[in-house]
Amino acid sequence: MYPNEQFLNKRPSGTKAELHEFAKTVLKYFFETYPLDESLENLWTMIQQSFYTKRFVLTNAERANLIAYYQDLHTLLLATNIVNDELKKPA
Prior knowledge:
mainly alpha, 4 helices
């Protein structure tokens, strides 16, 4: 388990080349660890669990925002998977 601070940190900094390399490394790691189908399944499970928790009830606006976020994150996963596949091809 990671401390919450890791997920609330600021954007990475560095030169354009360093940031590009960081992004490539993160993409490679993510899709090696979580193939696209597994990522989409995990994302759906997360959204389902957020609606079924007994700890607190989401308002309609919060629920709508969470669904919109899910849809956008889902699309982002699809797009980053395409970029990641391109990065794996020989130059």
